[in-house]
Specification:
Blueprint: H1 46-55, H2 78-83, H3 85-89, H4 99-105, H5 112-129, H6 133-149, H7 151-154, H8 161-187, H9 193-218, E1 238-239, E2 242-250, E3 257-259, E4 262-264, E5 267-274, H10 279-290, E6 301-302, E7 306-309, E8 340-341, E9 350-351, E10 374-377, E11 391-394, E12 414-420, E13 433-441, E14 446-447
Antiparallel strand pairs: 1-14, 2-5, 2-13, 3-4, 5-12, 6-7, 7-11, 8-9, 10-11, 10-12
Helix pairs in contact: 5-6, 5-9, 6-8, 8-9
Length: 450
Protein backbone atom coordinates (compact mmCIF):
# COMPACT_ATOMS: atom_id res chain seq x y z
CA UNK A 1 0.00 0.00 0.00
CA UNK A 2 1.06 3.57 -0.56
CA UNK A 3 1.39 5.62 2.60
CA UNK A 4 -0.72 8.77 2.33
CA UNK A 5 -0.52 12.05 4.12
CA UNK A 6 -2.87 11.85 7.12
CA UNK A 7 -4.00 15.47 6.79
CA UNK A 8 -5.81 14.62 3.59
CA UNK A 9 -6.53 10.93 4.19
CA UNK A 10 -7.60 10.52 7.78
CA UNK A 11 -9.00 7.27 9.11
CA UNK A 12 -10.38 6.80 12.60
CA UNK A 13 -10.76 3.23 13.77
CA UNK A 14 -13.44 2.96 16.43
CA UNK A 15 -13.63 -0.21 18.49
CA UNK A 16 -17.39 -0.30 18.73
CA UNK A 17 -19.52 -3.36 18.21
CA UNK A 18 -23.07 -4.60 17.89
CA UNK A 19 -25.30 -4.49 20.95
CA UNK A 20 -27.41 -7.46 19.97
CA UNK A 21 -26.25 -9.40 23.03
CA UNK A 22 -26.16 -7.20 26.11
CA UNK A 23 -24.43 -9.94 28.08
CA UNK A 24 -21.30 -9.70 25.96
CA UNK A 25 -18.42 -7.48 26.99
CA UNK A 26 -15.07 -6.40 25.67
CA UNK A 27 -12.12 -8.63 26.49
CA UNK A 28 -8.39 -9.01 26.24
CA UNK A 29 -6.68 -11.06 23.52
CA UNK A 30 -6.68 -14.76 24.40
CA UNK A 31 -5.71 -18.08 22.91
CA UNK A 32 -8.08 -18.97 20.13
CA UNK A 33 -9.70 -22.09 18.84
CA UNK A 34 -9.92 -25.26 20.87
CA UNK A 35 -9.05 -23.87 24.28
CA UNK A 36 -11.78 -24.04 26.95
CA UNK A 37 -11.40 -20.30 27.32
CA UNK A 38 -13.22 -19.02 24.20
CA UNK A 39 -14.49 -15.53 24.89
CA UNK A 40 -16.75 -13.12 23.05
CA UNK A 41 -16.06 -9.40 22.94
CA UNK A 42 -18.73 -6.81 22.39
CA UNK A 43 -18.78 -3.31 23.87
CA UNK A 44 -22.12 -1.61 24.47
CA UNK A 45 -20.67 1.81 23.77
CA UNK A 46 -17.29 3.47 23.45
CA UNK A 47 -17.33 4.82 26.99
CA UNK A 48 -18.25 1.45 28.51
CA UNK A 49 -15.69 -0.34 26.37
CA UNK A 50 -13.02 2.14 27.33
CA UNK A 51 -13.70 1.66 31.02
CA UNK A 52 -13.58 -2.13 30.73
CA UNK A 53 -10.51 -2.29 28.53
CA UNK A 54 -8.33 0.23 30.29
CA UNK A 55 -9.24 -0.24 33.94
CA UNK A 56 -9.57 -4.01 34.31
CA UNK A 57 -7.31 -6.83 33.17
CA UNK A 58 -10.11 -9.35 33.55
CA UNK A 59 -12.19 -10.79 30.72
CA UNK A 60 -15.66 -12.19 30.63
CA UNK A 61 -16.89 -15.37 29.00
CA UNK A 62 -19.80 -15.92 26.69
CA UNK A 63 -22.96 -17.88 27.42
CA UNK A 64 -21.35 -21.09 26.19
CA UNK A 65 -18.67 -20.87 28.84
CA UNK A 66 -15.97 -21.20 26.22
CA UNK A 67 -12.78 -19.26 26.87
CA UNK A 68 -9.93 -18.06 24.68
CA UNK A 69 -6.45 -17.97 26.29
CA UNK A 70 -5.77 -14.25 26.89
CA UNK A 71 -3.41 -11.68 26.18
CA UNK A 72 -3.77 -12.01 29.26
CA UNK A 73 15.35 -3.81 29.01
CA UNK A 74 16.71 -2.16 28.51
CA UNK A 75 20.43 -2.10 28.15
CA UNK A 76 23.08 0.08 29.68
CA UNK A 77 21.56 3.16 28.08
CA UNK A 78 19.33 3.76 31.06
CA UNK A 79 19.61 7.53 31.27
CA UNK A 80 18.54 7.82 27.65
CA UNK A 81 15.82 5.20 27.97
CA UNK A 82 14.42 6.94 31.01
CA UNK A 83 14.22 10.23 29.15
CA UNK A 84 12.32 8.44 26.39
CA UNK A 85 9.80 6.98 28.84
CA UNK A 86 6.99 9.42 28.14
CA UNK A 87 7.07 9.01 24.40
CA UNK A 88 7.57 5.25 24.42
CA UNK A 89 4.93 4.39 26.99
CA UNK A 90 2.18 6.83 26.24
CA UNK A 91 2.44 8.08 29.83
CA UNK A 92 2.57 11.69 28.69
CA UNK A 93 -0.22 13.85 27.39
CA UNK A 94 0.15 12.55 23.83
CA UNK A 95 0.16 8.85 23.03
CA UNK A 96 2.97 7.80 20.71
CA UNK A 97 1.24 5.77 17.98
CA UNK A 98 4.12 5.70 15.48
CA UNK A 99 5.55 2.15 15.32
CA UNK A 100 8.84 3.32 13.83
CA UNK A 101 9.26 5.88 16.61
CA UNK A 102 8.54 3.23 19.22
CA UNK A 103 11.12 0.94 17.64
CA UNK A 104 13.69 3.74 17.67
CA UNK A 105 13.06 4.35 21.37
CA UNK A 106 13.56 0.63 21.92
CA UNK A 107 17.09 0.57 20.52
CA UNK A 108 19.88 -0.08 23.07
CA UNK A 109 21.74 3.18 22.54
CA UNK A 110 23.06 5.76 24.98
CA UNK A 111 23.62 8.91 22.92
CA UNK A 112 21.58 11.74 24.45
CA UNK A 113 22.10 14.05 21.49
CA UNK A 114 20.43 11.67 19.04
CA UNK A 115 17.47 11.21 21.39
CA UNK A 116 17.00 14.97 21.49
CA UNK A 117 17.28 15.08 17.70
CA UNK A 118 14.70 12.28 17.44
CA UNK A 119 12.20 14.26 19.49
CA UNK A 120 12.61 17.30 17.25
CA UNK A 121 12.24 15.33 14.01
CA UNK A 122 9.20 13.41 15.24
CA UNK A 123 7.54 16.62 16.41
CA UNK A 124 7.84 17.91 12.85
CA UNK A 125 5.65 14.99 11.76
CA UNK A 126 3.04 15.92 14.37
CA UNK A 127 3.13 19.55 13.28
CA UNK A 128 2.81 18.69 9.57
CA UNK A 129 -0.16 16.38 10.11
CA UNK A 130 -1.77 19.05 12.32
CA UNK A 131 -1.09 21.76 9.69
CA UNK A 132 1.02 23.67 12.22
CA UNK A 133 3.34 25.12 9.60
CA UNK A 134 5.28 27.64 11.70
CA UNK A 135 6.21 25.11 14.43
CA UNK A 136 7.17 22.60 11.72
CA UNK A 137 9.49 25.16 10.09
CA UNK A 138 10.96 25.88 13.49
CA UNK A 139 11.60 22.15 13.88
CA UNK A 140 13.39 22.07 10.53
CA UNK A 141 15.62 24.94 11.67
CA UNK A 142 16.43 23.19 14.95
CA UNK A 143 17.16 19.93 13.15
CA UNK A 144 19.53 21.62 10.70
CA UNK A 145 21.36 23.36 13.54
CA UNK A 146 21.68 20.16 15.55
CA UNK A 147 22.99 18.13 12.61
CA UNK A 148 25.61 20.76 11.82
CA UNK A 149 26.69 21.65 15.35
CA UNK A 150 26.29 18.31 17.13
CA UNK A 151 27.77 15.96 14.52
CA UNK A 152 30.93 15.64 16.61
CA UNK A 153 28.81 14.32 19.49
CA UNK A 154 26.85 11.91 17.28
CA UNK A 155 29.49 10.12 15.24
CA UNK A 156 31.65 8.83 18.15
CA UNK A 157 28.74 6.57 19.17
CA UNK A 158 28.59 4.91 15.75
CA UNK A 159 29.99 1.56 14.74
CA UNK A 160 31.51 3.35 11.74
CA UNK A 161 31.89 7.12 12.05
CA UNK A 162 32.20 7.52 8.28
CA UNK A 163 28.85 5.82 7.72
CA UNK A 164 27.19 8.13 10.22
CA UNK A 165 28.80 11.18 8.64
CA UNK A 166 27.28 10.16 5.31
CA UNK A 167 23.87 9.63 6.91
CA UNK A 168 24.00 13.06 8.55
CA UNK A 169 24.83 14.61 5.16
CA UNK A 170 21.82 12.85 3.62
CA UNK A 171 19.60 14.11 6.44
CA UNK A 172 20.71 17.69 5.80
CA UNK A 173 19.89 17.28 2.11
CA UNK A 174 16.42 15.96 3.01
CA UNK A 175 15.65 19.10 5.00
CA UNK A 176 15.63 21.21 1.84
CA UNK A 177 12.51 19.69 0.17
CA UNK A 178 10.82 19.51 3.57
CA UNK A 179 11.35 23.23 4.16
CA UNK A 180 10.41 24.09 0.59
CA UNK A 181 7.07 22.28 0.79
CA UNK A 182 6.26 23.77 4.18
CA UNK A 183 6.84 27.27 2.84
CA UNK A 184 4.59 26.51 -0.13
CA UNK A 185 1.86 25.23 2.17
CA UNK A 186 2.09 28.41 4.22
CA UNK A 187 1.50 30.58 1.15
CA UNK A 188 -1.51 28.67 -0.23
CA UNK A 189 -5.13 29.06 0.84
CA UNK A 190 -6.16 26.69 3.60
CA UNK A 191 -7.94 23.66 2.18
CA UNK A 192 -6.82 24.28 -1.39
CA UNK A 193 -5.50 21.58 -3.70
CA UNK A 194 -2.15 23.38 -3.77
CA UNK A 195 -1.92 23.28 0.02
CA UNK A 196 -2.77 19.57 0.04
CA UNK A 197 -0.02 18.76 -2.47
CA UNK A 198 2.51 20.82 -0.54
CA UNK A 199 1.60 19.11 2.73
CA UNK A 200 1.83 15.70 1.06
CA UNK A 201 5.31 16.64 -0.14
CA UNK A 202 6.30 17.82 3.33
CA UNK A 203 4.95 14.64 4.89
CA UNK A 204 6.89 12.45 2.44
CA UNK A 205 10.08 14.41 3.09
CA UNK A 206 9.64 14.11 6.86
CA UNK A 207 9.15 10.35 6.60
CA UNK A 208 12.32 10.14 4.52
CA UNK A 209 14.13 12.16 7.18
CA UNK A 210 12.82 9.86 9.92
CA UNK A 211 13.98 6.78 7.99
CA UNK A 212 17.50 8.22 7.83
CA UNK A 213 17.28 8.93 11.56
CA UNK A 214 16.57 5.24 12.08
CA UNK A 215 19.67 4.38 10.04
CA UNK A 216 21.70 6.75 12.22
CA UNK A 217 20.42 5.28 15.48
CA UNK A 218 20.90 1.69 14.34
CA UNK A 219 24.53 2.55 13.66
CA UNK A 220 24.81 3.47 17.35
CA UNK A 221 23.89 0.01 18.60
CA UNK A 222 27.19 -1.50 19.83
CA UNK A 223 28.57 -3.96 17.28
CA UNK A 224 27.63 -7.53 18.15
CA UNK A 225 25.24 -6.43 20.89
CA UNK A 226 22.49 -8.79 21.98
CA UNK A 227 20.23 -8.94 24.99
CA UNK A 228 21.35 -11.54 27.54
CA UNK A 229 18.83 -14.31 28.23
CA UNK A 230 18.95 -16.50 31.36
CA UNK A 231 20.35 -19.98 30.80
CA UNK A 232 16.98 -21.42 31.84
CA UNK A 233 15.76 -20.59 28.33
CA UNK A 234 18.78 -21.58 26.25
CA UNK A 235 16.82 -24.49 24.79
CA UNK A 236 14.46 -22.02 23.07
CA UNK A 237 15.08 -20.01 19.88
CA UNK A 238 16.45 -16.51 20.46
CA UNK A 239 16.52 -13.45 18.20
CA UNK A 240 19.72 -11.47 18.71
CA UNK A 241 18.71 -8.18 17.17
CA UNK A 242 15.83 -7.38 14.84
CA UNK A 243 14.26 -9.16 11.90
CA UNK A 244 11.80 -8.18 9.20
CA UNK A 245 8.85 -10.46 8.48
CA UNK A 246 6.41 -10.06 5.60
CA UNK A 247 2.96 -11.64 5.33
CA UNK A 248 0.72 -11.69 2.29
CA UNK A 249 -2.92 -12.58 2.94
CA UNK A 250 -5.81 -13.37 0.62
CA UNK A 251 -9.56 -13.81 0.94
CA UNK A 252 -10.62 -17.47 0.70
CA UNK A 253 -13.15 -16.66 -2.05
CA UNK A 254 -10.71 -14.53 -4.03
CA UNK A 255 -12.51 -11.27 -3.25
CA UNK A 256 -10.40 -8.15 -2.65
CA UNK A 257 -9.46 -6.38 0.53
CA UNK A 258 -11.07 -2.95 0.60
CA UNK A 259 -9.34 -0.06 2.37
CA UNK A 260 -10.56 3.52 1.95
CA UNK A 261 -12.66 2.47 -1.06
CA UNK A 262 -9.61 1.01 -2.81
CA UNK A 263 -9.54 -2.70 -3.69
CA UNK A 264 -6.43 -4.86 -3.23
CA UNK A 265 -5.95 -8.45 -4.34
CA UNK A 266 -3.76 -9.22 -1.34
CA UNK A 267 -3.11 -7.70 2.06
CA UNK A 268 0.64 -7.23 2.44
CA UNK A 269 2.07 -6.58 5.90
CA UNK A 270 5.64 -5.71 6.81
CA UNK A 271 6.60 -6.24 10.45
CA UNK A 272 9.70 -5.52 12.50
CA UNK A 273 10.34 -8.16 15.17
CA UNK A 274 12.34 -6.82 18.10
CA UNK A 275 14.84 -9.25 19.57
CA UNK A 276 16.46 -6.54 21.67
CA UNK A 277 13.42 -6.35 23.92
CA UNK A 278 11.77 -9.73 23.26
CA UNK A 279 14.59 -12.14 22.35
CA UNK A 280 12.75 -15.35 23.27
CA UNK A 281 9.29 -14.35 22.02
CA UNK A 282 10.80 -12.84 18.87
CA UNK A 283 13.01 -15.86 18.31
CA UNK A 284 10.08 -18.22 18.69
CA UNK A 285 8.02 -16.23 16.17
CA UNK A 286 10.82 -15.91 13.60
CA UNK A 287 11.57 -19.64 13.83
CA UNK A 288 7.92 -20.52 13.20
CA UNK A 289 7.67 -18.10 10.28
CA UNK A 290 10.85 -19.51 8.75
CA UNK A 291 9.61 -23.09 9.12
CA UNK A 292 6.36 -22.24 7.33
CA UNK A 293 4.19 -22.79 10.41
CA UNK A 294 1.95 -19.79 9.62
CA UNK A 295 1.85 -20.28 5.85
CA UNK A 296 -1.68 -21.16 4.65
CA UNK A 297 -3.05 -20.67 8.17
CA UNK A 298 -6.36 -18.84 8.54
CA UNK A 299 -7.10 -15.78 10.63
CA UNK A 300 -8.95 -17.20 13.62
CA UNK A 301 -10.22 -14.10 15.32
CA UNK A 302 -11.14 -10.62 14.13
CA UNK A 303 -13.46 -8.74 16.44
CA UNK A 304 -12.49 -5.08 16.17
CA UNK A 305 -10.12 -5.40 19.12
CA UNK A 306 -7.52 -7.82 17.76
CA UNK A 307 -6.76 -9.89 14.68
CA UNK A 308 -5.38 -13.22 15.83
CA UNK A 309 -3.96 -16.46 14.46
CA UNK A 310 -1.46 -19.21 15.30
CA UNK A 311 -3.75 -22.09 16.34
CA UNK A 312 -2.88 -25.10 14.15
CA UNK A 313 -5.25 -27.83 12.98
CA UNK A 314 -5.62 -30.76 15.37
CA UNK A 315 -5.96 -31.00 19.13
CA UNK A 316 -2.99 -28.84 20.00
CA UNK A 317 -3.51 -25.12 20.61
CA UNK A 318 0.05 -24.29 19.57
CA UNK A 319 3.32 -25.47 18.06
CA UNK A 320 4.08 -29.07 18.98
CA UNK A 321 7.76 -29.65 19.74
CA UNK A 322 10.13 -30.75 22.48
CA UNK A 323 9.14 -29.29 25.83
CA UNK A 324 11.21 -26.39 27.12
CA UNK A 325 13.14 -27.23 30.27
CA UNK A 326 11.88 -24.19 32.20
CA UNK A 327 8.22 -24.09 31.15
CA UNK A 328 7.52 -27.58 29.86
CA UNK A 329 4.75 -28.40 27.42
CA UNK A 330 1.02 -27.94 27.09
CA UNK A 331 -1.62 -30.66 27.45
CA UNK A 332 -1.29 -31.65 23.80
CA UNK A 333 2.47 -31.40 23.44
CA UNK A 334 2.64 -27.66 22.72
CA UNK A 335 6.05 -26.10 23.27
CA UNK A 336 5.44 -23.31 25.77
CA UNK A 337 7.50 -20.16 26.07
CA UNK A 338 7.79 -17.89 29.10
CA UNK A 339 6.05 -14.55 29.45
CA UNK A 340 8.76 -12.01 28.59
CA UNK A 341 8.44 -8.35 29.59
CA UNK A 342 10.92 -5.51 29.04
CA UNK A 343 10.46 -2.50 31.30
CA UNK A 344 12.01 0.93 30.90
CA UNK A 345 14.97 1.16 33.29
CA UNK A 346 15.80 -2.56 33.30
CA UNK A 347 18.90 -4.05 31.71
CA UNK A 348 17.05 -7.09 30.38
CA UNK A 349 13.53 -8.56 30.28
CA UNK A 350 12.08 -10.46 33.22
CA UNK A 351 10.41 -13.81 32.67
CA UNK A 352 7.50 -16.01 33.77
CA UNK A 353 5.53 -13.19 35.41
CA UNK A 354 3.69 -9.96 34.68
CA UNK A 355 4.50 -6.49 35.96
CA UNK A 356 1.68 -6.85 38.51
CA UNK A 357 3.26 -10.08 39.75
CA UNK A 358 6.49 -8.11 40.11
CA UNK A 359 4.74 -5.29 42.00
CA UNK A 360 5.43 -2.82 39.19
CA UNK A 361 1.94 -1.96 37.99
CA UNK A 362 1.75 1.31 36.06
CA UNK A 363 5.41 1.41 35.07
CA UNK A 364 6.39 1.82 31.43
CA UNK A 365 7.26 -1.01 29.08
CA UNK A 366 9.88 -0.50 26.37
CA UNK A 367 7.50 -1.75 23.66
CA UNK A 368 4.02 -0.48 24.52
CA UNK A 369 0.73 -1.53 22.94
CA UNK A 370 0.12 1.98 21.64
CA UNK A 371 0.40 1.51 17.88
CA UNK A 372 -2.18 0.18 15.45
CA UNK A 373 -0.87 -3.29 14.59
CA UNK A 374 1.25 -3.76 17.72
CA UNK A 375 2.07 -7.47 17.93
CA UNK A 376 1.46 -9.43 21.11
CA UNK A 377 1.74 -13.02 22.28
CA UNK A 378 -1.55 -14.66 23.24
CA UNK A 379 -1.90 -16.79 26.36
CA UNK A 380 -4.45 -18.08 28.82
CA UNK A 381 -5.87 -15.50 31.17
CA UNK A 382 -4.53 -16.98 34.41
CA UNK A 383 -1.31 -18.56 33.18
CA UNK A 384 1.40 -16.14 32.05
CA UNK A 385 3.47 -18.98 30.60
CA UNK A 386 0.86 -20.69 28.42
CA UNK A 387 1.82 -19.04 25.13
CA UNK A 388 3.08 -21.22 22.29
CA UNK A 389 2.41 -19.96 18.77
CA UNK A 390 -0.73 -17.82 18.85
CA UNK A 391 -0.23 -14.09 18.41
CA UNK A 392 -2.34 -11.04 17.68
CA UNK A 393 -2.25 -7.64 16.07
CA UNK A 394 -3.86 -5.04 18.31
CA UNK A 395 -6.34 -2.70 16.64
CA UNK A 396 -5.36 0.23 18.82
CA UNK A 397 -7.65 3.24 19.09
CA UNK A 398 -6.15 6.31 20.72
CA UNK A 399 -9.57 7.83 21.38
CA UNK A 400 -10.28 4.96 23.76
CA UNK A 401 -6.86 4.84 25.38
CA UNK A 402 -6.21 7.28 28.21
CA UNK A 403 -2.49 8.04 28.29
CA UNK A 404 -0.66 5.65 30.61
CA UNK A 405 -3.71 3.42 31.16
CA UNK A 406 -3.01 0.62 28.69
CA UNK A 407 -3.65 -2.57 30.67
CA UNK A 408 -2.03 -4.84 28.07
CA UNK A 409 1.40 -3.35 28.73
CA UNK A 410 3.40 -5.52 31.09
CA UNK A 411 0.82 -8.30 31.02
CA UNK A 412 1.37 -9.65 27.51
CA UNK A 413 4.66 -9.65 25.60
CA UNK A 414 4.82 -7.09 22.82
CA UNK A 415 7.44 -8.28 20.35
CA UNK A 416 7.10 -6.06 17.29
CA UNK A 417 5.02 -3.73 15.14
CA UNK A 418 3.50 -3.57 11.69
CA UNK A 419 5.42 -0.82 9.90
CA UNK A 420 3.76 -1.12 6.47
CA UNK A 421 0.24 -2.21 5.52
CA UNK A 422 -1.38 -1.88 8.95
CA UNK A 423 -4.53 -0.43 7.34
CA UNK A 424 -5.25 -3.88 5.88
CA UNK A 425 -6.02 -5.12 9.39
CA UNK A 426 -9.26 -3.11 9.24
CA UNK A 427 -10.63 -5.42 6.55
CA UNK A 428 -9.13 -8.65 7.82
CA UNK A 429 -11.75 -11.25 8.69
CA UNK A 430 -11.85 -14.70 10.22
CA UNK A 431 -11.03 -17.20 7.50
CA UNK A 432 -8.68 -14.95 5.54
CA UNK A 433 -5.58 -16.93 4.59
CA UNK A 434 -1.90 -16.19 5.18
CA UNK A 435 -0.78 -17.14 1.67
CA UNK A 436 2.85 -16.27 2.33
CA UNK A 437 4.92 -15.69 5.48
CA UNK A 438 8.62 -15.00 5.10
CA UNK A 439 11.58 -13.66 7.05
CA UNK A 440 13.00 -11.12 4.60
CA UNK A 441 15.76 -9.61 6.76
CA UNK A 442 17.64 -10.62 9.90
CA UNK A 443 17.28 -14.40 9.73
CA UNK A 444 20.99 -14.68 10.51
CA UNK A 445 20.18 -13.19 13.94
CA UNK A 446 18.03 -16.19 14.86
CA UNK A 447 19.96 -18.49 17.20
CA UNK A 448 18.57 -21.98 17.52
CA UNK A 449 19.26 -24.15 20.58
CA UNK A 450 22.10 -26.62 20.24
Amino acid sequence: MTRTHPVTHTTTTTILHSTENNNEHHHSPTLAGKSPFQTAGRALAAAVMSAILWTSPLITTDDNNNNNPQLGFSMDAQSTMASAKEMASGSGSRVNKDPESLLRYGLPISNKEVRSLQGTIENINYDVTSKRISPALDGVKKTRTALKQKASKLTPSCQDANVCTSIISDMLDTLDPLEENLNKAKDYFSGSEQERKALDGAYAAQRNLAAKLTDLEEQMVPKGYFTPVPSDYDDLPQLRGRATVEFSLKKPDGSPFVVDDTRYKTADLKMIIDGYNAPVTGGNFVQLVNEGFYTNMAIQRSDGFVVQTGDPDGKADGYVAKASKAIGSGPNGERLIPCEISMVGDKAPFYESTMEDEGRGGQATVLPFSSYGAMGWAREEYDANSGSSQFFWLLFDSDLTPAGKNVLDGRYPCFGYVVEGADFLRDMKEGDIIASAKVTEGLEKLVMPK
